[in-house]
Amino acid sequence: MPTSLAELAKILNAWVDERIDLSGVRELIRHKVVPVHRHTVWYYFGGMTLFLFIIQVLTGILLLLYYRPSAEEAFESVQFIVTEVEFGWLIRSIHSWSANLLVATMMIHLFSVYFTQAYRKPREITWLSGMSLFGIFLFFGFSGYLLPWNELAYFATKVGTDVAGQVPVVGHLMARVLRGGDDVTGATLSRFYGFHVAILPLATTAILGLHLFLVQKQGMSVPPEIERSGQPLRTMPFVPSFLLRDLVGWLSALAVLGALAAYFPWELGVKADPFAPAPAGIRPEWYFMYMFQTLKYIPAKIGPIDGEVVGVLGFGLGGLFLLLVPFLDRKTARGEKSPLFFWIGVGIVTYIVVLSVLGYVAPGGK
Amino acid sequence: MRGAWLLLAPALLAGSVLLAGSQAAAQKLPEGNACIECHQGIGDPRVTPPAEKFPQDIHLAKGILCQDCHGGDPKNFDPQGSMNPAKGFIGKPKHQAIPQLCGKCHSDAAYMKKFNPTIRVDQVQEYFTSVHGKKLREGDQKVATCISCHDVHKIRAIKDQQAWTYPVKVVDTCGRCHGDAKYMQGYKVATDVVEKYKTSVHYEALTKKGDLSAPTCNVCHGNHGATPPGVDSVANVCGTCHSLTADFFNQSPHKKAFAAMGLAPCVTCHSNHDVPKPSDSMVGTDEKAVCVNCHDPKSRGYQKAAAIRKSLDELRGAVQRATAILDRAEHAGMEVSQAKFELRGASDSLLKTRATVHQFDPAAITKLSDEGVKIANKMHAKGVKALEDLTFRHRGLWISVGIILVAIVGLVLKIREIDRRQA
After folding, report:
1. Section A178-194 average pLDDT
2. pLDDT band at B20 (very low <50, low <70, confident <90, very high)
3. Is B2 a residue whose pLDDT tops 60?
4. Which of A190, A366, B160, B249 is the most exposed place for a label (fewest CB within 10 A)?
5. Which helix (H) or strand (E) holds A35?
6. A264: nearest CB among B333, B404, B422
7. A79 touching B, CB under 8 A?
8. Cα separation of B133 and B130, whole Å?
9. Amino acid B179: pLDDT
């Protein structure tokens, strides 16, 4: 009989090891190190995003137990969750707040990788998989926003899918596929539910698996300027030093999420009424605000082309540029300084921040 | 400065929309019409107004021109020819002749249906049943005729917002005579009615809330057949809109009592032109209550009034308490929309109770108000629970944060220890 937990763990470890050889994993844990330099802080945001994603999965599963995905019952079921289900309010608020924090940490992670040029060879696939995850998480946010079937979400989805409909050639088909018809209806809700709880999680599992595998395989990237300095690089063991620091961040995030849920519970609003006029102040989630605001500023017609089409094309090209940056930035790939791509990055971040702020303080436009 | 422009912008926009609207309503005057061209070009302010006003007139829009009312020959530019009585020219019609002149077309069903198949054609007939029409027949030259209320040469459709007969403008149209003490001298009619009406709940609903169904002068007095409602007909007039209240009153003991005392229903308690917003304080035994005007403290009616007021106060208080606590919970971020929805049941009971007051039956009123109080108290309890939940959440949060902080401190100490060991 084992007399302590440590002894029990040892027995279990030996039992598993006898059947599955864990020496590779043990070796990885023993030797995995994280570079220590003045940009090390940015390494924590990937882990933080992963932690928030785990929170999303857990709270999402709990919400699934009560949520009913139909136009007739969705709003009432969320209302039931937040009023009648024990701690339902906490789970729903954490799910909503965590989704927003996740997008924020993901954006920080994306741009920290961009500015430290961690996308350069040999990490192009890691960058591509990360960018795919970024797109998937934005779609997670977009599809999840509609699920409570409240007024704001309904009209925001209408606007959002209208914008998708502006994509040249395939726009109309895309909007119809997204909506499950010509308009936002109960069919859209069922469809978004399917995306949100089945298709996107499946895609995320596969791509996130690849992303994490590559990070483990290739290790953390060291910024070129640190490499070029020629100074000996300090490291810290991943286990336990980096992991414990990660844990501090995760626990802090948990405390922040709890505080947000308790003091600023996520509003439910009023049930969507497709026949009601659009309410004043409809707007998308904050991470789509810069696009929404841009479309307001673009004139209705630019030459013979619709302004919205130009806007949508612009964002498409912007996204494509970011996706292909490891292949476009040849100087960084050669180990040279690449000020052009640095300033393009500064421009993109400034644009997103300024337009997002304008979206809240100057809701007019056009 | 930019702020000032921003403030001015809506006013400028509204102004331009109004301007555009009035320009759109103006018609182009026909060319080659002797009446119009002479009256426009003669330069004498005594004769130019008809031509100046006519572009805004509904008749022009329908193709009806000067000669259709005044006769004459509009093709003849010689005044002797165009204004020749032999050509049917009647000049400016006499005051007494106006109803018949308008009625020439407006009482002709076959003719009027060409313009609107549902249009009324009994206005002139009805006019002569009114005090105005009767007095006109008696030779009174001051009483209102068609043009007094509909304007002349600038007659607008009744749905036109600028028409003198548009609901929000009716009181000023009637008030031009009925609010002018000097003009109304010699008639036994009060001239403070316009000012009084403008303090009423009806005028507020009409002008501030934009409720065009709210009554103005013609809704109670009639328009073409305008006449003051007598004591016997007041309840019917008010009951046109307040039908449930009128039914309750007709079932009440007050019906007979008022008739015996020669008191007009409704207006005895609510007044007529200056009808105030009704409140629960009108019922009861305190000095604001109208009941004490007739019922002395020893009467049964006095006791009934006190009981009715008690029921009203209880229900109103319960609804207010429940609303307040649910509002507090909602502002704190709690989801109480279902409770607020259910509270509408109590508010509906309050409305019904207030209408039932006119039955003056304390037992029926108490039964209704008790139902409302029950709902309101239940919702109040939900509000209390929501606030308790909120306190529980905040406490739970701080306990959790405390535990997390302890864990973080422990982790930080552990990290330092490891770092020291590795250094």
Report:
1. 95
2. very low
3. no
4. A366
5. strand A33-36
6. B333
7. yes
8. 5
9. 95
Residue B110 is encoded by which pair of tokens? 């076959």
Determine the 3-state secondary structure of A67 from DSSP.
coil
Q: What is the DSSP string of A113-170?
A: HHHTTTTSTT-HHHHHHHHHHHHHHHHHHHHHHHTT-BHHHHHHHHHHHHHHTTSTTT
> Please, what are the domains in chain A?
31-269+279-361 (1.20.810.10)
Q: Which tens digits make up the pLDDT trace of A224-255? A: 988 888 888 899 999 899 999 999 999 999 99
Do A175 and A165 meet the contact criterion of CB atoms below 8 Å apart?
A: yes
Query: What distance separates the 2 farthest-apart alpha carbons in chain A?
Result: 83
Contact A180, A187 (CB under 8 A): yes
Tell me how far CA of residue B418 lies from CA of A34, A198, B40, B410, in angstroms.
15, 42, 103, 12
pLDDT of residue A251: 96
Q: How many C-beta atoms lie closer than 10 Å to residue B390's C-beta?
A: 19
The residue with tokens 């106006």 is B98
What are the beta bridge partners of residue A236? A34
Chain B residues near residue A270 by CB distance under 8 angstroms = 337
Establish if A7 touches chain B: CB-CB under 8 angstroms: no
Cα–Cα distance measured from residue A174 to residue B345, given in angstroms and rounded to the nearest whole number = 45
Answer for the pair A311, A294: CB distance below 8 angstroms, yes or no: yes
Yes or no, beta carbons of B337 and A270 under 8 Å apart: yes
Contacts 24+ apart (CB under 8 A), A199-203: A200/A136, A200/A139, A200/A140, A200/A143, A201/A57, A203/A136
Average pLDDT over residues A77-106: 94
pLDDT on residue B180: 95
- Pairwise CA distance, residues A74 & A144, whole Å: 12
Closest Cα to residue A133, out of A215, A73, A78?
A215
Residue type, B223: N
Cβ contacts of A267 on chain B, cutoff 8 Å: 333
CB contact under 8 A, B401 and A240: no
Taking CB atoms and an 8 Å cutoff, what residues of chain A touch B415?
A: 241, 244-245, 248
Q: Would you call A255 and B419 a contact, using CB atoms and an 8 Å cutoff?
A: no
- Give the residue carrying structure tokens 């030996």: A14
Euclidean distance between CA atoms A154 and A347, whole angstroms: 33
Closest to B127 (Cα-Cα) out of B106, B157, B108 = B106
d(CA B414, nearest CA chain A) in Å: 8
Chain A residues near residue B338 by CB distance under 8 angstroms? 79, 83
Q: Which of B161, B115, B185 is nearest to B17 (CA)?
A: B161
Q: What is the ipTM score, two decimals? A: 0.82
Alpha-carbon span B221 to A162, nearest angstrom: 54
For residue B407, the chain A residues in CB contact (below 8 A) are 251
- CB < 8 Å to B383, chain A: none
In this structure, the number of other CB atoms found within 10 A of the CB of residue A281 comes to: 8
Task: Name the pairing type of β-strands A301-302 and A305-306.
Answer: antiparallel
**Contact check, Cβ <8 Å, A251/B407:** yes
Q: Which helix (H) or strand (E) holds A36?
A: strand A33-36
Q: How far apart are CA B390 and CA B337, in angstroms?
A: 16
Interface test with A, best of B335, B336, B405, B409 (most A CBs within 10 A): B335
B249 Cβ contact list (under 8 Å, min separation 6): B235, B255, B265, B266, B358, B359
pLDDT of residue A302: 87
Nearest to A110 by CA among A335, A313, A352: A352
Tokens of B129: 């049943």
Do the Cβ atoms of A248 and B411 come within 8 Å?
Answer: yes
- Which residue matches tokens 């795919």? A132
Asked if residue B68 lies in contact with residue B79, where contact means CB atoms within 8 angstroms, the answer is no
A15 contact B CB<8A? no
